[in-house]
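okkk here we go again. third time trying to get the S-adenosylmethionine bound version out, last two times i messed up the smiles copy paste (missing a bracket lol). double checked this time i swear
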Amino acid sequence: MKAGRPSRTAQFVALGRALADAGLSHVPGFSDPTARVFLNDRGKRSLAKTERMAADGRRGMTFEGARRMADLLALRTTTIDGAVRQAIAGGARQLVILGAGYDGRAWRLAELEGVKVFEVDHPSTQGDKRARVAALPPPRGIVSFVPIDFERETLDTVLARAGHDKALPTCWIWEGVVMYLTHDAMRATLASIAARSARGSTLIVNYHTMHRGWLAGLIFRLIGEPQISTWSPDEMAADLRSAGFVVSEDSGMLDWNTRFARGEAKVHRGSYMRVVVAQNRHRGFIVP
Ligand SMILES: C[S@@+](CC[C@H](N)C(=O)[O-])C[C@H]1O[C@@H](n2cnc3c(N)ncnc32)[C@H](O)[C@@H]1O
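finally!!
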């Protein structure tokens, strides 16, 4: 991230969700009305331009690119929403969103009513988000904003300070973050997550199995947020296992397309995007 500036990639994915909310994706009924509220001026202009193209029936490369982006984000979001709902139904009383960016779940998911939601993020992005949430209706969850610079502070310290209870089951979302970390940094944070995960906790991780094409890679480097790490599903399962988590599901973009978009989304180029859901192995025991 560039010093003192909100994350550009966090804005980028919020734009994808806003485009999907505007009806551009192939996922029937997809809705995330929070996304457009979080957009900066540039994002709002892109959204308005694409909505005009849709209304006028103009189809070109730009429009098709916007549709693909809407599909990628709608499919990823729908998959993670499902895993969060399942974790809450299974007894998780806290939700921790790591690198939350402009995640709107705390405002959007009715299942989070009464659930403590810890939004953990870099202060530059979080400050910008906090300035924008005033335009939203009150959140469903009980939101705490927890600033952190992962390069300087530990998750354990900031969550303890914010009132996260490690004796209660937690649902963790780690979406759009681990690809920006080294494997060592990912494992260090994973150890902190494990140490604060009581029985019945669920960890949801979005990861990539390969690097993006050179042009996308260059763009991410130029904006100061290079994607540096990939995992195979087996490597990810092994990392999670060594932190005490057992994988219950690992699925990818092509599975989600079949599941949520009848296979109609043109997302084959995003087939490297995956989501793994894992549970704390110490189910039935309280982890001290
Ligand atoms: C691609 S965004 C993902 C946002 C969100 N999870 C989503 O999927 O919409 C990456 C997030 O990681 C956060 N981040 C990057 N470097 C960080 C650091 N050193 N400490 C804390 N957060 C960081 C950014 O602020 C940003 O919100």
